[in-house]
Specification:
Blueprint: E1 8-13, H1 16-24, E2 33-35, E3 46-47, H2 49-52, H3 62-68, E4 73-75, H4 79-94, E5 100-104, E6 107-111, H5 122-137, E7 141-146, H6 149-158, E8 164-166, H7 169-177, H8 189-197, H9 203-208, H10 211-218, H11 221-228, E9 245-256, H12 259-280, E10 282-293, E11 298-309, H13 312-324, E12 333-341, E13 344-345
Parallel strand pairs: 2-4, 7-8
Antiparallel strand pairs: 1-6, 1-7, 2-3, 5-6, 9-12, 10-11, 10-12, 10-13
Length: about 350
């Protein structure tokens, strides 16, 4: 006998960092706000919906963001505040189920197939959670409800901000078929561009490709693409899911040959990695630098330390030294990437302080 469908909720806070800043500072409400960076340098960590209308988004260069939106207001991030609010929200989640899988400070999966309040309707639980988040934190969240994680995530993205979407089994395949490939959770920009070059533009196009072709072109993850094109996803909600590494990489339109250009890109990547580490309340002991050359050959360089670190400055300094050791790249560089690993999470620490690396 087949088991009854799971009842999965994906909750995603709306412009979380920026919304917290607008909540705490009434002068920012209704205005375009960027958390992180400045007009001169840096990277945007989060943008309010007012800023997003101008094409401002997370991981965008602050300089470009200011060009796109001259009236943009830059605010320094307050990760300790965001973490405190995140804990409030997770307490709400856990009052309904222990099967909570946080993905970051601002989003999580919940399995409410069996729940603490005995409510058979996942939709009612999701709406109640949204209301409680609003009442207890003054912030809005969007929620997707479905029978698997992939569809729940798709649902939470569909009607932001303050949205709610239910995707039932009888509507799933048609919805996925009409979805643009870049909207698929798990398919990034680079993979989406490759698929589009193969003529795969929608979920219907992806469904037409045999599994062996997808594996041949995309590796093992091709099997996942084959399944999600059919609205299939058997991944369970994992309450103790541990991320082993945090990284960011960038492919350049023009190959880099000058050290200063490489260093500027590394600085941007280091800030992005640091932002993600702060969201996950993690520190690292290892940094790996990935270099891909114009001819698609690549190498990696790593260094591990006894002390933990998490700041953008520390990650950048290590990556800079790796770039120069044993020597600077002697060929044009088409991609650079930074990965932090040997992670330690705040909730695993016995003490309430964070060690730092003295550079």
């Amino acid at each position: 006998m087949s088991l009854p469908p799971r009842k999965i909720i994906h909750v995603d806070m709306d412009a979380f960092f920026a919304s917290v800043e607008q909540r705490d500072n009434p002068a920012l409400r209704g205005k375009p706000v960027a958390v992180g960076g400045s007009r001169e340098r840096g990277v945007v960590a989060a943008a309010s919906y007012e800023a997003r209308k101008f094409g401002v988004h997370s991981a965008l260069s602050s300089k470009i963001a200011a060009q796109r939106c001259p009236q943009l207001i830059f605010v320094k991030p307050r990760f300790e505040v965001y973490s405190a609010v995140s804990r409030q929200i997770r307490e709400i989640f856990h009052s309904y189920t222990d099967l909570v899988e946080p993905l970051s400070l601002d989003e999580a999966y919940l399995d409410v197939t069996e729940n603490k309040i005995g409510m058979p309707s996942a939709s009612i639980i999701a709406k109640e959670i949204k209301q409680r988040i609003w009442e207890e934190t003054g912030l809005t969240a969007s929620a997707g409800v479905s029978f698997n994680k992939f569809l729940a995530k798709i649902g939470s993205d569909m009607n932001k901000p303050n949205g709610f979407t239910l995707i039932t089994p009888d509507m799933a395949e048609e919805l996925v078929a009409g979805l643009m490939i870049e909207k698929f959770h798990g398919i990034g920009k680079v993979t989406a561009a490759k698929m589009q070059g193969m003529g795969i533009v929608t979920g219907a196009d992806l469904r037409e490709r045999p599994e062996d072709e997808l594996v041949r072109n995309f590796g093992k993850v091709g099997r996942y693409y084959y399944r999600i094109a059919r609205a299939q996803d058997d991944r369970e909600v994992q309450p103790h899911r541990i991320r082993k590494s945090i990284g960011s990489e960038r492919t350049f339109d023009v190959d880099l040959t000058e050290e200063q250009d490489m260093l500027e890109r590394l600085e941007e990547l280091a800030k992005e990695v640091s932002i993600d580490m702060a969201r996950l309340q993690a520190t690292a002991k290892t940094v790996t630098l990935k270099i891909k050359y114009f001819d698609f050959t690549q190498n990696t360089r790593s260094k591990t330390f006894l002390s933990e670190f998490s700041s953008a400055d520390a990650i950048y300094t290590i990556a800079r030294d790796l770039l120069r050791t044993p020597q600077l790249p002697h060929q044009p560089v088409r991609l650079l990437g930074i990965t932090a690993s040997s992670l330690l999470y705040q909730h695993d620490k016995m003490e309430g302080y964070q060690l730092t690396l003295d550079l």
